[in-house]
Design a protein that fits this description.
Blueprint: E1 12-14, E2 31-38, H1 53-68, E3 76-77, E4 80-81, E5 92-93, E6 96-98, E7 103-105, E8 107-110, E9 117-119, E10 143-144, H2 150-153, E11 159-160, E12 168-172, E13 178-191, E14 197-212, E15 221-224, H3 232-235, H4 237-240, E16 243-247, E17 259-264, E18 275-278, E19 290-291, E20 293-298, E21 301-304, E22 319-321, E23 328-331, H5 332-344, E24 350-351, E25 361-363, E26 374-378, E27 381-385, H6 387-390, E28 391-395, E29 398-401, E30 403-406, E31 410-412, E32 420-425, E33 430-435
Parallel strand pairs: 8-15, 9-14, 22-31, 23-30
Antiparallel strand pairs: 1-8, 2-5, 2-17, 3-4, 6-13, 9-15, 10-13, 11-12, 12-13, 13-14, 16-17, 16-32, 18-33, 19-22, 20-21, 20-26, 24-25, 25-29, 26-27, 28-29, 32-33
Protein name: Aspartic proteinase CDR1
Keywords: Aspartyl protease, Glycoprotein, Hydrolase, Protease, Signal
Domain Peptidase A1: 92-434
């Protein structure tokens, strides 16, 4: 394994979610796992073979920067973070289908979104997509949702019931993109790694008839894995018990392997080495997975963390666990102290990053840089980040720090989550971490 070849991005493109519920024992509290295909994998529809490693990493940085911009303080209230993600910033793809008979959907799977949606016919003003549009008329299980349903009410201010019957919605994103259409219920089908298809009837999704903005033609929608009521995790809570986990591989691992996301019983993270921290909910409209960071230790030196808040004490829910952001972002004042401490611990030739991404880079061609273990101290949970979680080989002779400064809320990016089983339990309101070799999971 190349220690610094670890660009893991998480937001998943889904193409053919196929399984029969009873076949994998979900009705009795069982579970299932699904492959996560990295955006830059040769198996991904986004893959561009003409791009170099450096170009792919630079693109990932720009997607992260675009995504982080939507987590601005101006987008936050005392009730939590309100604005939605940039829809084109996905990093992983997953296979999913919708309807009867099932129609493949290529959708960005996002832990920071709620509503799952795909483009539907007729689409009078929609972005171009490579795969065929979903046609409700060809599905025997499609039903428009009415205005009085709990699903429609969950849309809040994004819903409209002007005709008094059908529930319609309009979503706006942080970059100005938008989607709108009918809220409907359908059969969602997923393909597990066990090879058995599983179906979930009565799944609420957005059938988009109008869209615009920055969307990739290889994507036909989003699968929401957030904490709000309309997310896939919330809708399937009676069968997966509000539990899921993932294990992210280094991106430059053998191309025949994929990361995995696990649901239900398969999504439980437990056993020796597991640590858990409370999931913080800031109001009913929180879409994201917020936890509390109390500090970092570089070797034996501990740095207390207060986030972007000006309060004297540590504020709960001060960092987002986000699979869709590549790098880890920390408020500037704290970042400066962390970088100084890390740099002091490394003996090597410090150089400028020609890509303009990181301010802490080293000239080296060896497989491992002599970087310290950095321990993230979350409430009730200490997580040791290895060098492959915090440094990345940008090019043949350049290794850079994968933590960056921000003026906004902290974000634990997916590089920091590489080779960890990261579990989410919405019922117990806990997020768990366990160091793991993700090639075995």
């Amino acid at each position: 394994m190349e220690v610094f070849g670890v660009k893991i991005f998480f937001n998943v493109v889904v193409v053919g979610f196929l399984f029969h519920l009873l076949e994998v024992g979900l009705a009795s509290g069982g579970g299932f796992s699904v492959d996560l295909i990295h955006r830059d994998s040769p198996h991904s529809p986004f893959f561009d073979p003409s791009k170099t490693r450096t170009e792919r990493l630079t693109d990932a940085f720009h997607r992260s920067a675009s995504r982080v911009g939507r987590f601005r303080q101006s987008a936050m209230t005392s009730d939590g973070i309100q604005s939605r993600l940039v829809p084109s910033a996905g990093e992983y793809i997953m296979n999913l289908s919708i309807g009867t008979p099932p129609v493949p959907v290529i959708a960005i799977v996002d832990t920071g979104s709620d509503l799952t949606w795909t483009q539907c016919r007729p689409c009078t003003h929609c972005y171009k997509q490579v795969v065929p549009f979903f046609d409700p008329k060809n599905s025997s299980t499609y039903r428009d949702s009415s205005c009085g349903t709990s699903f429609c009410l969950a849309l809040g201010n994004d819903r409209s019931c002007r005709n008094g019957k059908k529930c319609t919605f309009m979503y706006s994103y942080a970059d100005g993109s938008f989607t709108g259409g009918n809220l409907a219920v359908e059969t969602l089908t997923v393909a597990s790694t066990a090879g058995k298809p599983v179906s979930f009837p009565g799944f609420a999704f957005g059938c988009v008839h109008r869209s615009g903005g920055i969307f990739d033609e290889h994507s036909s929608g989003i699968v929401g894995l957030g904490v709000a009521e309309l997310s896939m995790i919330s809708q399937l809570k009676s069968t997966i018990n509000g539990r899921f986990s993932y294990c992210l591989l280094p991106v430059f691992t053998d191309s025949s392997m994929s990361s995995r996301i696990n649901f239900g019983r398969s999504g439980i993270v437990s056993g020796a080495g597991t640590v858990s921290t409370p999931l913080v909910m800031k109001g009913p409209d929180t879409y994201y997975y917020l936890i509390t960071l109390e500090g970092f230790s570089v070797g034996k030196k501990r740095l207390s963390y207060k986030g972007f808040s000006k309060k004297a004490e540590v504020e709960e829910g001060n960092i987002i666990v986000d699979s869709g952001t590549t790098y880890t972002y920390l408020p500037l004042e704290f970042y400066v102290k962390l970088e100084e401490s890390v740099a002091h611990s490394i003996k090597g030739k410090r150089v400028r990053d020609p890509n303009g991404i990181s301010s802490l880079c080293y000239n080296t061609t060896v497989d491992q840089i002599d970087a310290p273990i950095i321990t993230a101290h979350f409430k009730d949970a200490n997580v040791e980040l290895q060098p492959w979680n915090t440094f990345l080989r940008m090019q043949e002779d350049l290794v850079c720090f994968t933590v960056l400064p921000t003026s906004d809320i902290g974000i634990l990016g997916n590089l920091a989550q590489v080779n960890f089983l990261v579990g989410f339990d919405l019922r117990k309101k806990r997020v768990s971490f366990k160091a793991a070799d993700c090639t075995l999971h």
